[in-house]
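Quality-control log, excerpt.
Job 1 of 2 completed; input and output follow.
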Amino acid sequence: MGLFGLTKGQFSLTDMIEAILAKTGPADLSISTWTAANGDVSRMLELLSSGAIRSCRWLVDLTFMRRCPQLTSEIRAKFGANAIRVTKTHAKFCTITNDEWQIALRSSMNLNQNPRLESFQVGHDPKLCQFLSGVMDEIWQRQDKGIADLSSKEISGWWNDQG
């Protein structure tokens, strides 16, 4: 089953993740976002503490480190030193997976409040989940976790060198 919808700010990407986890039970979460807000990172931490999220990895835009250094540090401290990678991205998607569910969530929303028209598509889609997870897996395999500590210019250089 899949669902496409629009929101005019009535709910956020974080609200959607929470609603999906309420259905799936404890799951592993992967997030790709251009940016995230402090409150939304805190809500993900609450889900981790409660056991709703078993693990979480974050793919963020290379400018996130410069724009939100305190959130970058918090993500590493709470989700683990290996939890974050950087790239040139504007792609917003999540995978929520466990033994029973393979949820792919694609959205125009970042992980923050979005008081505007935003779109989303969500569904149990093992093939799409496998594809999105494969993209994340490749980045985690190719990029040392220390790349996220470099300057935006150095990260851009690394990105350009990857071809």
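Job 2 of 2 completed; input and output follow.
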Amino acid sequence: MTELTFAITFHGWFRVGAELGRDGLDVAIDHDDPLPGDSLKGAMLASARDVLGDAPVVARAFGTPAAPSPWHWSSALPGKGGWTFDRTHRIEIDETSDTARKDHLVVSELAWAADARFTVTQLGRLTADECTQQVVTLVAAARATHHLGGWRRRGLGWVGIAPTTDPGTGVDLAAVLELRGAGR
């Protein structure tokens, strides 16, 4: 079984909302798991589609409703400093009066860490060639992921993600371009 470890470098605060708000918060963060594996997988899937388009290897690596992914994403674990949490707000301004619109104040939590790590572990059976292609896809997707969580267009969630070690597959631009060409 193959296990890939990735390091995340945070360039700013991020927010992955929990299911429910809490007293005084419209958008809360799960303090026990502020960056869950399914959010990491979703961000990487979006990046894989940006880089590789509709190449079949993307569906095989990330899964579809008919065929689940052979990989499992762990939640991110912070480095030495741990997670830091803060609150922020945003309002909507009424263009005619230049004042805050009634009921348009949102108070949310933000999370921060200098760095974090997560793993992507192979759980399903793959041939050696399938594993190599999917590892190339996962590494390319991770390196192409520069935003995660909510409010990305408002400057939150800017990150860099890179493998912590060479996965031993010769992951390079030529391999990614070959996979991209296979999707056409």
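Post-run check on job 2. The chain has a mean pLDDT of 85.
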